[in-house]
């Protein structure tokens, strides 16, 4: 009988006829062998004839190497196409190249910012049933810093700042760049007044006592202030 072909060799002929080439089927009196990519040719002498052998396969691009691995499963059989890729050329499935997928974590990252995927969700820490935008069932830790340099600039890394005598000026960021941010400044016992400057010329204002605490030596001795940005200026919320 004729032999079938492979990916690199053709099927053989059976009797009169020709062998196949490049994985194609051969031709012969008894039917050519099936090729990897093509069937064998039929042959008839007028007295007897032979059907061509069947063929199957996939001709990939010149640079690819395709392997057919047979297998079985319940019901119909299947053929698995398993491309052999050069090392390091496979897709990187880190999620960055996937789209339109649900976010099971409930959080979304945009640049350096992380927020609930549904912005109206409540966030609970230590509780699975938060009743407010943020509920913390347990202790919390806020940044605490001692200002010792001659000029100390408040940033997003600060919350409570204790000022000592070596610090003559504390600079507060422009309120419009950090709406809602809250600072507490403690002018330590025994220290004199110091200068509180708001970048861009804004003020730190107490609308209860109608007092402005920003300016040259405007922050008095033995004073503790908490003030918050309303998006336009800084408003004293506690003394």
- Indicate the proportion of strand residues: 25-35%
SSE ordering: EEEEEEEEEEEEEEEEEEE
Span between N and C termini?
Answer: 102 Å
Query: What form results from the Cα inertia axes?
Result: elongated
The largest sheet, given as strand count, sense and whether it forms a barrel, is: 7 strands, mixed
Helical fraction equals: under 10%
Rg, nearest Å = 40 Å
Strands, count: 19
Q: Within the largest sheet, what's the order of strands? A: 9-11-13-18-19-15-16
Give the class from helix and strand content and strand pairing: mainly beta
Count of helical stretches: 0
Mean pLDDT: 78
The residue ranges in which pLDDT falls below 50 over 5 or more consecutive positions are 44-51
Write a concise synopsis of the structure shown.
With 239 residues, the chain is an all-beta fold.
Protein described:
- With 239 residues, this protein is mainly β.
- Helix content is 0%, strand content 32%.
- It is built from no helices and 19 strands.
- The protein has strands spanning 43-44, 49-50, 66-71, 78-83, 107-110, 113-116, 123-125, 134-136, 144-147, 151-153, 160-163, 169-172, 182-187, 194-198, 204-206, 211-212, 215-219, 224-229, 234-238.
- The chain has a 7-stranded mixed sheet, with no helix packed on it.
- A hairpin with a 6-residue loop joins strand 3 (66-71) and strand 4.
């Amino acid at each position: 009988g004729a032999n079938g072909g492979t990916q690199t060799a053709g099927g053989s002929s059976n009797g009169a006829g020709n062998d196949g080439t490049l994985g194609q089927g051969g031709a012969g009196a008894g039917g050519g062998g099936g090729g990897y990519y093509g069937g064998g040719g039929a042959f008839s002498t007028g007295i007897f004839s032979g059907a061509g052998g069947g063929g199957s396969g996939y001709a990939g691009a010149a640079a690819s190497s395709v392997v057919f691995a047979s297998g079985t499963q319940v019901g119909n059989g299947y053929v698995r196409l398993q491309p052999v890729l050069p090392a390091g050329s496979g897709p990187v499935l880190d999620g960055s190249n996937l789209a339109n997928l649900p976010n099971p974590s409930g959080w979304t990252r945009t640049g350096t910012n992380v927020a609930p995927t549904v912005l109206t969700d409540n966030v609970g820490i230590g509780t699975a049933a938060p009743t407010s935008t943020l509920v913390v069932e347990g202790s919390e830790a806020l940044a605490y810093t001692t200002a010792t340099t001659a000029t100390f600039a408040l940033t997003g890394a600060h919350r409570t700042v204790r000022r000592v005598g070596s610090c003559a000026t504390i600079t507060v960021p422009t309120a419009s760049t950090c709406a809602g941010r809250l600072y507490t400044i403690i002018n330590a016992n025994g220290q004199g007044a110091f200068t509180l400057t708001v970048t861009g010329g804004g003020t730190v204002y107490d609308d209860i006592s109608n007092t402005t605490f920003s300016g040259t030596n405007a922050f008095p001795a033995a004073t503790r202030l908490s003030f918050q940005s309303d998006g336009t200026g800084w408003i004293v919320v506690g003394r």
